[in-house]
Amino acid sequence: MVGNRGFWRDLRYLRRTPLALMGLFGILCLVVVALFAPWIAPFPQDARGATHIENKFLPPSTTHLFGTDELGRDIFSRVVFGTRISLSVGAFAIGLSLLIGVPLGVIAGYVGGWLDEVIMRVTDTFLSFPPLLLAMAISVTLGPNLVNAMIAIAIAWWPWYTRILRGEAISVRERAFVEAARAMGASRLRILVKHVFPNCLAPLVVQASMDLGSIILTSAALSYLGLGAQAPTPEWGLMISSSRSFFLTHWWVVTFPGLAIFASVLSFNLLGDGLREFLDPRVRRRIKR
Amino acid sequence: MSRAFLLALFGIVAFGLWGLGAQPNVAVYVYNSEVMIFWDPSDTYSNEIIAMNNMYEQLIRYDPLTDSFQPVLAESYEKSADGLTWTFYLRKGVKFHTGNELTAEAVKFSIERTIERGMGASYIWAPVEEIEVVDRYTVRFHLKYPAPLDLIASGAYAAFVFDPEYSDHEWFAAGNDSGTGPYTVEAWKPGDYLILKKFDDYWRGWEGKHFDKVIFKVVPEPSTRRLMLEAGTADYTNMLPITEIEALKDNPEVEIVTTPSFQNLLALFNTQKPPLDNVLVRRALAYTIPYQDIIEGVRFGYARQSRGVVPYGLWGYSDRVKQYTYSLEAARFYLAQAGYPEGGFKLLLTHVAGDEDERRVAELWKSTLAELGIELEIRGMPWEAQVELGQAPDPTKRQDIFLFYWWPDYPHPHSFLREMFGTRDEILFNFTYYSNPVFDELIARAEELAGIDRTEAINLYVEAQNILMEEAPGVAIYDLKYARAKRTSLKGYVDNPAYPHVVFWYECWREE
Questions:
Q1: Cβ-nearest to B363 among A56, A145, A231
Q2: Cβ neighbours of residue A92 under 8 Å, at least 6 residues apart?
Q3: How many domains does chain A have?
């Protein structure tokens, strides 16, 4: 049995895989940058939309670490503030899709029957669309802004969690400790919350940490297409989109926001991969403790 | 891999695709999109005018920069004192590509067919009551009300004369023409190219230097068009993004031609929604636009600050119209008078999503507004959605500032004033929601006078524009300058903003 405490203990073993550790370290860096953005960014007002046309297209230097864009804004400051946006979009969108997906999945898996059928058919309908396309469609319908983009992403993502949770719940439901709880007269809700849900957590954490990367990428894609954050928000995807026509003559305008997206997606994927290895008993056995 | 190598590679590919370009006496115009949208000269309303103005001709041609007319099919014309009767004396011996001769009957037939089909820009003929054939070479237009028929007859659209015997819509649509112009169709491949060859019996003759053939080649990718121009496989291209223009600037074999356009960017203020229902706040806002920064930073100099709302080069533009400057002091003064010394309000600006210039204008403006404590929310929307919000039933639900481009269908200042600022029962483009009977009266009288007394009409348009500047229901920010690129060896090219993107190839030649 992989209990609640067992899960946290497992996390400690992460340090034995350097790649996952790198991922974790990258994420920690992102969080620190996001938290202390106003102190890290040398020109915080540039992230809020101040322009200095006289400084346009300055190449990277000690004053402007990443150079300046076509309106003379410090790209470094904007990338730093962009971390806040990307992380909060990721957290919000994941949170919302978990909020929708998890209860539905646990209920479908544990209760079964016609309820399972209904929930899963709806889920299948959502799953039949590629997530980015679905998010684009929803975002267009709701109107393009950052909050709607987050909602759109969440709507496109929740079915994956329902699927995973349902599978887990089905396997957990027949286990002895659930049987025991049932025999002791625990209510359905209590069993769901106290026994079924915590034991489904492991694959969920893996999936969510992997997805955070994809969600950051998707939100950047939406903003790039004009369906997410609106100017002058320092969203990474939007920054790339805004400056893309100057890429050939001024390489830095696109490169640094692109690297930021790359680094954050990579970090979440590395961590997710590491977590998966540790939480999968078959893989874990092969790693020396 | 060096830049030169890439360039050579692209050049080879472009050359392989279009080897003809290097031939003497063959001109190549690389265009960013499909050329022939309409083949019917009555219906024309789109890109095809760049080819059609070489295949067909109008009675006269207009030069907006000098406000004068050149005779083309008509050798001369006169109008009655009341501006209601216009008589055109046709050139004799002009041949259609079909071999038939141009007559007054053909002119009457062409224009009447255009009016009857009611397509494209045919509405420009609305003032015409009757077309009378006086004799074989004289045609007279009787108007319902005074109107500048010379401007209408010289229109880039809907004013072509063609052979009545060859005027079947299906025949046109199959890729045929029956004009009098210097060139006629040789070959056409939709989405790829259109080849025109010279018409031997053209009335101006083929003495001197001229191109024998003109090729219109469709190449949507701007960098490919730039490379073709650099490689010499193209003579002319239009619509290059500023970044490509900048890359060509230092190449001696290529020339950048800038020209005023009749297209301007306007910010329309919602005069029915607080705080912009207050004229003082609107005036303050007009002072907060960083005009010069926008022209340099957004348009890289390819624009000039608007004066009034009629663009530079179009009659009705005048130095007597007030021009706002960027002045935060003035803005503070008016804001304080209006009761907002610290700003403290929020405005919603909408623009077309994907228009990078509009977005950058909005971003620069947001930055200056922030200094006055005014928060600008920038919302890029699809055009339909932007319009829908602008037409919302409740004026307070609409945007505060509507940013968009305007250009006229034929060279007349009227549409700039009436569509956006005139009193309208139904909102079409009046996103200022402005209504001023004095202003309406002025522009109505100016429109009538335009066909009789142009000078007086201009005076009234000046007066009307000064009312707009005073009341500030909106501001024109800049008049676009078009930047085109051509080979330095291409001579004789003169840009005429009344015929957007048109090259009159008969007047051009290549210096070898």
A1: A231
A2: A150, A154
A3: 1
Q: Is residue A151 part of a domain?
A: yes
Residue A268 within any structural domain of the chain:
yes
Judging by DSSP bridges, how do beta strands B213-218 and B193-198 pair with one another? antiparallel
Q: Who contacts B160 (Cβ-Cβ below 8 Å, separation ≥6)?
A: B41, B42, B44, B52, B56, B57, B58, B110, B114, B179
* Residue B164 · residue B425 · CB < 8 Å: no
Whether residue A13 lies inside any domain: the answer is no
pTM for this prediction: 0.79
Q: Kindly list the residues from chain B whose CB atom is less than 8 angstroms away from the CB atom of residue A145.
A: 379
Examine residue B411 and say whether the peptide bond preceding it is cis (omega within 30 degrees of 0): no
* pLDDT greater than 90 at residue B141: yes
pLDDT tens figures, A241-280:
888 878 878 899 999 999 999 999 999 999 988 888 777 6
**3-state DSSP percent of chain B in helix, strand and coil, to 5:** 35, 25, 45
CA B428 – CA B368 distance, rounded (Å)? 31
First to last CA, chain A: 19
Size of interface A-B (CB pairs under 8 A): 62
- Alpha-carbon distance B284 to B278, whole Å? 10
What CATH number does residue A109 fall under? 1.10.3720.10
The per-residue pLDDT for B6 is 53
Mean pLDDT of chain A: 88
Alpha-helical runs (H) found in B19-123: 49-55, 104-117
Task: State the residue range of the domain holding A99.
Answer: 29-35+69-288
Strands (E), B163-222: 183-189, 193-198, 213-218
Strand pairing report for B236-237 and B26-31: parallel
Query: Nearest CB to A51: which of B363, B377, B385?
Result: B363
pLDDT of A284 strictly over 70 = no
Q: What is the token pair recorded at B488?
A: 């330095």
Asked if residue A247 belongs to a domain, the reply is yes
Distance of CA B68 to the CA centre of its chain: 18
**Global ipTM:** 0.79
Closest approach of chain A CAs to the CA of B11, in angstroms?
Answer: 18
**Partner residue facing B380 (CB), from A50, A140, A226:** A226
